[in-house]
């Protein structure tokens, strides 16, 4: 941009973006206005949706982001932020939020038996406790309204009775019923049409929650309806006391108290099935180390994870480099076609390859045993050590083409004068490789090696597709000897159908995140030293 | 109601902004179009504006769509079907119902029930007199602690499938008889295929053999409900473990750890073995070109070989905002024979309605599966079952591959009891 000294202020205004103001046809401004309208529409819909489900965190965050967007794009002084803001929003929503939420879950007991709020656990306990009285007939029923409260009118063998929550059922005279027996006219009450029940959600919830006592004696049960047109007598023995936070079984006198761990527990140690989510502090992290059923297998899994990631990078890098050097030699014919062939495993979807290899390593039907071991009975996938060998082998097969590709590129980029100088100085092949080629190669490939380590540290696909973590450790952990941390977390989280413990799984994934982060940081710091070579 | 206002407002704001000068009313016009029908036509209800959200998997979506269309036509309510992977339904339901994002109704398997109850996300269902129309095993499976939590629609169980071209169409009655039939027909190497899920082990498939030794996973009380008492210990369990060992790699070699799903299909379909213990989901039933006989599993230990019966049905969310409408849909539409027949035609699983089960038993293969299911027991739906699988599968496969049967089995039982606490 050229700036003329002493240029009048007007001209600077003219150079301003078309989106700033309305000049001429004003298409720029209109386009910006439309874009912002879209952004605002999206933001508002998120805000209303958050309001709807009472998700206050999301409400506050989305409101703040929306206001920030409007301020930034309509203010003159915030020019640089216009370019940064979209990226920042994506970072916040997709990275910071996810990480923060995982962190939050790590400090809770979220999992099987602890899924919702305490109120929802109470609702569930009351639902689970309320039983239909045995042999209670189904009565035709209508919902009635007298302006103050709603009640039920039921038809018990031709006799219509009406009652409300506070007023037990009492027969009323002169009621009219239709062919199906449903009361259609009751003196002093207005029949609520069923259609109204389905469309008015507040009313619907009131009707679902309404219990009309059959008589003054509470033990004889009360009428409830599930569809608004029929009722039956139900009995409930649990009573919720919100102040004392207790559920009392009126029949046995057992009192279930709310505990800090998110369960209703009675004095005798028995508890109600549904619990709720509470924060448990560092318990999950502590459990991972101290719970003997878990800590032993987890330690083995951790060691194997490191071994797996390190060995995979070393073997595939080594093989890739070896082939790259060989096929970089000008004496080899048809180098280009051969190189293309080397890329094939890389081009094949990893999970497909893993499944194919799994079939080939099958002890009885796999071609590996048949072709290469003369039909020997080698239990590749069922033996703890061999399963690890198989995983390393398949991952080598999958990832050496990548290193072949990278190293070929790096080799061709090496400065030929340096090599020539070395040759003139009388350096042998090995010496050339060790003192010049490899260090120069490491400058460009070391960061990729670290990235590859981090990727393989969390390489879920190959483990899951090849061995599913098996063969299992003896014991209750549910983990297996070829599990790496990420597949162990998957099985602990219970996503595959077992007992779920999202809290523990989140805690472990935070640990994995920290480990990968630290290793990457240290390693990148080390690679800076390599750059000094140049 | 507030929900609708908020959504309406958000929708109106979005629509107005997107469409610019659009002056159209975002609310559907039908709201005012339908005049009040007279009260005397009681059964026809008007649910215009109400919306039911139902989660389903792909296989049942079509069948549900037919029933939903009927429901929409009758009531004016909207039924929204959300298709998910069957495996995801359980966890998503548990995760999303507490946040208010869950559906009103979901398709599900009965053995999720323990997890759903402990998560507090599922409501009870009352089908009243209609209960008599359903098979008892289906109702039992959907019952937890004396309460019915779902509307069952299908049952399934594994059965002995026999290739009649290889060994004739007479079904064997005992294990020894079956092995002898196989051997005589020249299948000494592989007289019978037991699915073990490769090296992972599969207690589910071996369960009929286990029960024939009188060794249930959990002890059932008099009412048929499962207790948390592990029933696999003792002599019966040890006898079964010995049986696995004797027929494993250290013995006759009938069982191996190499049979995964595709292998078992392939072996049986290509006639490598005349007998397989599998379910109606095997692909060779769709082809119809194999000459098959299906019968209840033979007994190896003397007692009835009872397979696990899996039941599928519909669960109602505990947090449904449309509980009345959802109940109306479940008990007055989905519980009818027509709706259940539609489901059967779209996704042929053994119907849970007795009359329908009898009707489809005209087909001898289906009849075989129905007979097998009738001899079965519901798969335990108590949450403790979640602790069982991994230990159980692992112990069985270890014994099959030659571990000491009695000690491996007893260790497994002891660990299981410890983990249940």
UniProtKB/TrEMBL annotation, chain A:
It is a multi-pass membrane protein. It holds the Pfam family BPD_transp_1. Its main location: membrane. The chain crosses the membrane at residues 25-49, 55-75, 87-107, 303-326, 338-357, 390-414, 435-455, 502-524. PROSITE patterns: ABC_TM1. Residues 302-523 form the ABC transmembrane type-1 domain. SUPFAM superfamilies: MalF N-terminal region-like, MetI-like. The keyword ATP-binding does not apply. Signal peptide: none annotated. Belongs to the binding-protein-dependent transport system permease family. MalFG subfamily. This is Maltose/maltodextrin transport system permease protein. It comes from Demequina muriae.
TrEMBL record, chain B:
It comes from the Bacteria. It comes from Demequina muriae. Residues 29-44 have a biased composition (Low complexity). Belongs to the bacterial solute-binding protein 1 family. Pfam families: SBP_bac_8 (PF13416). The keyword Signal applies. PROSITE patterns: PROKAR_LIPOPROTEIN. The keyword Hydrolase does not apply. Keywords: Signal, Sugar transport, Transport. Residues 22-46 are annotated as: Disordered. This is Extracellular solute-binding protein. Residues 1-24 form the signal peptide.
């Amino acid at each position: 941009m050229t700036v003329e000294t002493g240029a009048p202020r007007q001209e600077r205004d003219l150079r301003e973006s078309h989106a700033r103001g309305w000049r001429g046809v004003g298409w720029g401004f209109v386009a910006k206005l439309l874009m912002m309208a879209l952004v605002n529409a999206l933001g508002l819909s998120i805000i209303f949706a958050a309001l709807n489900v009472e998700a206050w965190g999301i409400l506050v965050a989305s409101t703040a982001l929306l206001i920030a967007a409007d301020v930034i794009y309509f203010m003159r002084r915030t020019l640089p932020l216009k370019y940064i803001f979209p990226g920042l929003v994506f970072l916040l929503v997709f990275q910071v939020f996810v990480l923060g939420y995982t962190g939050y879950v790590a400090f809770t007991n979220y999992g099987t038996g602890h899924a919702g709020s305490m109120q929802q656990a109470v609702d569930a306990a009351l639902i689970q406790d309320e039983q239909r009285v045995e042999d209670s007939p189904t009565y035709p029923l209508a919902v009635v309204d007298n302006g103050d409260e709603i009640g039920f009118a039921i038809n018990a063998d031709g006799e219509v009775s009406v009652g409300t929550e506070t007023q037990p059922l009492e027969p009323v005279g002169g009621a009219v019923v239709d062919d199906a027996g449903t009361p259609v006219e009751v003196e002093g009450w207005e029949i609520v049409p069923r259609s109204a029940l389905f469309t008015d959600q507040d009313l619907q919830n009131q009707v679902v929650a309404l219990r009309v006592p059959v008589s003054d004696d509470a033990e004889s049960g009360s009428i409830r309806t599930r569809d608004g047109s029929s009722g039956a007598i139900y009995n409930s023995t649990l009573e919720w006391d919100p102040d004392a936070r207790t559920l009392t079984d009126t029949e046995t006198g057992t009192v279930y108290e709310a505990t800090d761990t998110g369960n209703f527990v009675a004095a005798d140690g028995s508890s109600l099935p549904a619990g709720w989510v509470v924060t448990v502090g560092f318990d999950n992290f502590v459990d991972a180390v101290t719970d003997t059923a878990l800590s032993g297998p987890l330690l083995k899994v951790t060691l194997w994870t490191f071994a797996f990631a390190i060995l995979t990078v070393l073997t595939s890098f080594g093989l890739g480099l070896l082939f790259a050097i060989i096929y970089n030699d000008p004496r080899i014919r048809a180098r280009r076609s051969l190189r293309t062939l080397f890329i094939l495993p890389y081009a094949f979807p990893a999970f497909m390859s893993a499944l194919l290899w799994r079939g080939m390593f099958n002890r009885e039907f796999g071609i590996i045993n048949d072709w290469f071991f003369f039909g020997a009975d080698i239990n590749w996938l069922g033996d703890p050590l061999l399963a690890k060998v198989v995983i390393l082998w398949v991952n080598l097969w999958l990832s050496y083409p990548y290193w072949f590709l990278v190293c070929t590129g790096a080799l061709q980029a090496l400065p030929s004068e340096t090599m020539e100088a070395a040759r003139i100085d009388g350096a042998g092949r090995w010496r050339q490789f060790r003192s010049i080629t490899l260090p120069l190669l490491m400058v460009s490939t070391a960061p990729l090696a670290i990235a590859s380590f981090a990727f393989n540290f969390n390489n879920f696909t190959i483990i899951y597709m090849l061995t599913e973590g098996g063969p299992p450790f003896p014991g209750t952990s549910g983990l297996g000897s070829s599990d790496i941390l990420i597949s162990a977390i998957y099985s602990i989280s219970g996503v595959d159908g077992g007992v779920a413990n999202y809290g523990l799984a989140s805690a472990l994934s935070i640990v994995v995140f920290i480990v990968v982060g630290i290793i990457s940081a240290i390693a990148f710091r080390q690679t800076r030293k390599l750059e000094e070579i140049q | 109601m507030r929900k609708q206002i908020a959504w309406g407002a958000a929708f109106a704001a979005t629509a107005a902004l997107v469409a610019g000068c659009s002056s159209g009313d975002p609310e559907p016009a039908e709201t005012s179009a339908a005049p009040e029908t007279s009260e005397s036509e009681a059964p026809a209800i008007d649910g215009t504006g109400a919306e039911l959200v139902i989660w389903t998997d792909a296989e049942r979506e079509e069948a549900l769509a037919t029933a939903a269309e009927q429901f929409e036509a009758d009531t004016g309510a909207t039924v929204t079907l959300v298709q998910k992977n069957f495996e995801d339904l359980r966890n998503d339901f548990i995760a999303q119902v507490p946040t208010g994002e869950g559906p009103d109704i979901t398709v599900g398997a009965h053995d999720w029930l323990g997890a759903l109850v402990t998560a507090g996300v599922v409501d009870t269902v009352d089908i009243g007199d209609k209960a008599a129309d359903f098979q008892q095993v289906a109702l039992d499976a959907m019952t937890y602690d004396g309460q019915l939590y779902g509307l069952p629609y299908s049952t399934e169980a594994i059965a002995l499938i026999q290739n009649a071209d290889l060994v004739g169409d007479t079904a064997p009655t005992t294990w020894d008889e079956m092995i002898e039939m196989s051997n005589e027909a020249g299948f000494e190497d592989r007289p019978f295929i037991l699915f073990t899920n490769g090296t992972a082990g599969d207690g589910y498939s071996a369960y009929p053999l286990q029960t024939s030794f009188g060794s249930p996973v959990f002890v059932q009380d008099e009412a048929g409900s499962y207790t948390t008492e592990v029933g696999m210990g003792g002599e019966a369990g040890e006898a079964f473990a010995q049986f696995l060992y004797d027929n494993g790699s250290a013995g006759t070699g009938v069982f191996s750890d190499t049979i995964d799903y595709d292998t078992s299909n392939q072996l049986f379909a290509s006639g490598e073995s005349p007998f397989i213990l599998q379910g109606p989901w095997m692909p060779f039933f769709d082809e119809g070109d194999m000459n098959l006989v299906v019968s209840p599993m033979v007994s190896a230990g003397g007692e009835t070989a009872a397979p696990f019966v899996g039941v599928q049905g519909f669960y109602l969310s505990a947090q449904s905002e449309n509980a009345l409408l959802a109940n109306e849909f479940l008990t007055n539409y989905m519980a009818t024979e027509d709706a259940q027949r539609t489901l059967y035609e779209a996704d042929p699983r053994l119907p849970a309605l007795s009359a329908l089960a009898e009707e489809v038993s005209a087909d001898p293969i289906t009849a075989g599966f129905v007979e097998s299911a009738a001899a079965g027991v519901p798969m335990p739906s108590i949450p403790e079952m979640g602790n069982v699988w991994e230990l159980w599968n692992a112990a069985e496969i270890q014994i099959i591959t030659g571990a000491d049967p009695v000690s491996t089995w007893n260790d497994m039982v002891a660990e299981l009891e410890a983990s249940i606490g």
